[in-house]
Amino acid sequence: MDAPLTRHDGRVTELVTERLELRRWHADDLDAYAAIVADPEVMRYMRSGPAGRAAAWREIAPFIGHRELRGWSQAAVVERAGGRLIGRGGLWEPEGWPGLEVGWVIRKSRWGLGFATEAAREAIDVAFDHVGAEHVISVIRPDNIPSIRVAEKLGETKERSMMTDGVVSDIYGIFRPPGYRPRRSSYAGVTER
Ligand SMILES: CC(C)(COP(=O)(O)OP(=O)(O)OC[C@H]1O[C@@H](n2cnc3c(N)ncnc32)[C@H](O)[C@@H]1OP(=O)(O)O)[C@@H](O)C(=O)NCCC(=O)NCCS
Questions:
Q1: Ligand 1 within 6 A of CB of 74
Q2: pLDDT at 98 over 90
Q3: What residues make up the domain containing 30?
């Protein structure tokens, strides 16, 4: 069954973790985001390949629209130390998607520091606690080893394979544990309006 258009009246505008801020997108994020997605290594497992500036803009716009429609979305991931945009991460479930996905893309110079895992952990907490989801997935190309490793660190396991956007993807997933308790009693950084 397709997801309802809006699962929650509140919108997730900002999350703060130990080292990261997951916030809404600003128009002036384009330069930094375009630099990230222009990198062929970052885009190696993306069907679309490296993106030019216009394509980067057309990626950001649906993140903003998704948040308007669903209340949460892929956020701009900012490293708190220095305030630099280092990628995107968070929840994603456009119409027809195989489930509520947690996704991640990190600037190559910041790989291997646990940032994708830190951002995704926060997003999964929001999914279970704020969105009320029972199940969260990640859609990963079978040869994307770093991404599979992130999924495993999050406690996700491989559930099935399927075609998404014309390519075979593995679906990793995690169910909300029985008796789930959020890591924090409230999201200091979640603003609802
Ligand atoms: C996938 C990605 C987001 C991971 O970001 P990150 O911040 O480096 O992730 P983390 O540091 O939290 O974890 C990465 C893990 O992969 C491991 N890893 C990285 N490259 C690896 C390789 N070639 N083989 C085995 N493990 C590898 C790291 O050692 C780490 O695991 P560890 O903590 O057990 O050592 C980043 O590589 C990226 O942006 N890739 C391009 C975009 C992409 O493919 N996104 C996912 C689409 S599904």
A1: no
A2: yes
A3: 14-175
